[in-house]
Amino acid sequence: MNIVVAMKQIPDLHQIRMRDRQPVLDDVPLTLGNIDKNALEAAVHLRDTHGGKVIALSAGSEELEDTIKEALAAGADEAFMILDDSLDNADSSVIAAVLAATIRKINDVDIILFGEGSGDNYSGQVGSRVAGILGLPQVGYASSMEVQGNSAIVTRSLEDGEEILEVELPVVIAVMADINEPRIPSVSQILKAGRKPQEVLELDDLAIEILEEPVVTESNLAPETPRKQVVVKSVDELIAVLRTEGVIGR
Amino acid sequence: MNFNLTKEQLLIQKMARDFAERYIEPVAEQIDRENKIPDEIIEGLAALDLFGIPFAEKYGGADGGYDGYVLAMEQIGKVSGGVAVTISAHSLALGAISTFGNEEQKVKYMTPGCQGQHILSFAFTEPGTGSDPKQITTTAVKDGDYYVLNGTKRFISNANFPGAIVIFARDNESGKITAFIVEKWTEGYTVSEPWDKIGQHGGQLLDVYLKDVKVPVENVLGGPGMGYPILQLGISFGKVGVSSTALGAILAAYEETLKYSKEKMHRDSSIAKFQAVQLRIADMAIKYEAARWLTYRFGCLANEVKDPRQFAKEAALTKTFVCETAVDAARVAMDIHGSYGLMNDYKVARIYRDAIIGPQIEGVSDMQKMIIAGVALSSY
Ligand SMILES: Cc1cc2nc3c(=O)[nH]c(=O)nc-3n(C[C@H](O)[C@H](O)[C@H](O)COP(=O)(O)OP(=O)(O)OC[C@H]3O[C@@H](n4cnc5c(N)ncnc54)[C@H](O)[C@@H]3O)c2cc1C
User: Fold this and answer.
1) Average pLDDT over every residue of A169-178
2) In chain B, where does the domain assigned CATH 2.40.110.10 lie?
3) Do B222 and B100 touch, CB atoms closer than 8 A?
4) Closest-CA residue to B182 (of B153, B225, B144)
5) Which CATH superfamily is B228-379 part of?
6) Between A and B, how many residue pairs show a Cβ–Cβ distance under 8 A?
7) Ligand 1 neighbourhood includes B366 CB (under 6 angstroms)
8) Which backbone phi and psi does B67 adopt, to 5 degrees?
9) Cα distance between residue B24 and residue B79, in whole Å
10) Which has fewest Cβ within 10 Å: A132, A163, B275, B365?
């Protein structure tokens, strides 16, 4: 069984500082998205149970050749990388087109795993878009999964309950962070990562047309909420103020 | 000159930090109280290759170099001096076998050690001396295919775990110090109760009694009479572990200080507003960076030792600076914590009790300075 895990290269969120309400990204080490690591762990687990191969797939800037070692250390058997400096900040539609075109080049893919959202933007679109382009069924919010014969049994964790689906392979699945706890790779796994098979592609190798960026991100700060700054001295006064503001019933 | 860590080095550092924070930190206080490292921690360390980072893969090691070892040990030392000293003393013995052992000895004694099934020991110190090989009184008398060892070894780390122990004794043929690889718990090998030391709890420290212990001739390490060079170079490698452990203590003291100085309130704001507190924080930051790069450099030097004497000097100066800085940093951290720092409920008390050990082990600081001055004067 071949499992592709799509993993995004992002700045290490623990090491980002803020200046003038903007993240400072210079010299911040790159890593792979946190939930993507859960997706990888899920893939490794499936491979260990059913055999086959785990293929890490990522599109990003040149540094990816180093960053991808994290996935290879944590259990991926090989990696497919599409390198281009424009890809680090590319729009979800571009990334989806690039990933889908690359997946077409990989033989016999049974499961394509995504993290529910990327560690930086969390727009959560790429998985669905890839499924759309490839014409595959997709399941989101997966909190557990297993494979039986030619189908995947996936539990989706939804706001008001759980849903268990049986889907025929090949399938696209987006996992949640609580699906597992990613393993810590050992020293030898880390040191051997760089020696595992790696396929490097450039945008020209993929027969896709990249459109003008349809979406421009202007800011990813939380919207500012104006504060009323009302000071009260007693509970009665607080209730009165909340009433006047219409926050609680009259 | 390039001060950037490679991706592999960063990942080794992160691996050790993750393991230390996720698994050791929650039991660090328990390890301190009970003077025992839980078996699951030992197994976890073994699974991540932390008992054999710098050693060759063909002997069970991870081939991660002393640079990788330093990075991992700093993170382990940061959360538990007791766990770090256990690995450090074990790696000291492995390092001696790796450098001076023959193929057969390496395969037999290093492999289970690097894989963490055995935890090794290195026994030089005796009740009479911990610094002067001339005063070693343990004897080895040759009897056919065996040597018979008698004597007492003091303050021996890991002496109660299974595995090999490198023992230094005066042999009756050469009249010199010879190193022997002995299997612990062999007939005639017994140990004392563990010493109740001030800190680095969890690290096991015992006296070893050798009564007519028979050691096959093939277990001589590096040849008869070679004990002194083995001791010197072995201890130089051992200082990588001791220095990294102390480096972790500096980082821990520094972080506890930053945290506490922001938490502890004076009137309406934290004590971090005081310049006196800020100056101490600045001093710690300076010292941590200095100690860090000295230790990382030492790890890189240990990967490729050309001149053992020069290496001994580098080892001595790194170990002295970093271990003494750890004591300073821990003491300053105590100042910032006021009386709370004296309470065992506070992590800083443990950091202090752990740090104070560094300058006194694997050669006291005074002896280190004699090595440094000796090499410096003779090569001028
Ligand atoms: C936690 C811990 C773990 C240890 N693990 C091990 C281990 O695994 N294996 C092992 O063999 N040992 C181990 N030891 C022992 C330790 O390495 C020795 O105790 C240490 O080297 C110091 O020896 P000493 O106590 O005999 O001090 P001494 O040699 O007696 O030194 C005491 C003081 O005397 C002075 N002094 C001594 N000699 C000279 C001189 N020639 N010139 C000038 N001044 C001098 C110095 O000021 C020195 O500080 C351990 C100790 C501890 C606390």
Assistant:
1) 96
2) 121-227
3) yes
4) B153
5) Butyryl-CoA Dehydrogenase, subunit A, domain 3 (1.20.140.10)
6) 51
7) yes
8) -65, -45
9) 7
10) B275
Q: Please, what sign has the CA dihedral across residues B56, B57, B59, B61? A: positive
Q: Which residues have CB under 8 Å from A54's CB, separation 6+?
A: A3, A5, A40, A43, A44, A47, A75, A76, A77
ipTM of the complex: 0.95
Which CATH entry fits the domain spanning B7-114: 2.50.20.10, 3.30.1510.10, 2.40.160.210, 1.10.540.10?
1.10.540.10
Query: 3-state secondary structure string, chain B?
Result: CCCCCCHHHHHHHHHHHHHHHHHHHHHHHHHHHHCCCCHHHHHHHHHCCCCCCCCCHHHCCCCCHHHHHHHHHHHHHHHCHHHHHHHHHHHHHHHHHHHHCCHHHHHHHHHHHHCCCCCCEEECCECCECCCHHHCCCEEEEECCEEEEEEEEEEEECCCCCCEEEEEEEECCCCCEEEEEEECCCCCEEECCCCCCCCCCCCCEEEEEEEEEEEEHHHEECCCCCHHHHHHHHHHHHHHHHHHHHHHHHHHHHHHHHHHHHHCEECCEEHHHCHHHHHHHHHHHHHHHHHHHHHHHHHHHHHCCCCHHHHHHHHHHHHHHHHHHHHHHHHHHHHHHHHHHHCCCCHHHHHHHHHCCHHHCCCCHHHHHHHHHHHHHHCC
For the stretch A126-169, pLDDT in tens is: 999 999 999 999 999 999 999 999 999 999 999 999 999 999 99
Is the Cβ atom of B231 under 6 angstroms away from ligand 1? Answer: no
Residue B362 is among the residues annotated as catalytic for this protein: yes
How far B13 CA lies from chain A's nearest CA (Å)?
10
Domain that residue A198 falls in: 2-217
- Tens of pLDDT, residues A32-90: 999 999 999 999 999 999 999 999 999 999 999 999 999 999 999 999 999 999 888 78
A237 located within any domain: no
Whether the Cβ atoms of residue A244 and residue A235 lie closer than 8 Å to each other: no
User: Is A197 at the interface with chain B, CB within 8 A?
Assistant: no
Q: Residue B45 pLDDT > 90, yes or no? A: yes
B18, B19, B64: residue with CB nearest A191: B64
- Give B129's contacts (C-beta < 8 A, 6+ positions apart): B135, B136
pLDDT digits (tens, 9 = 90+) for B142-154: 999 999 999 999 9
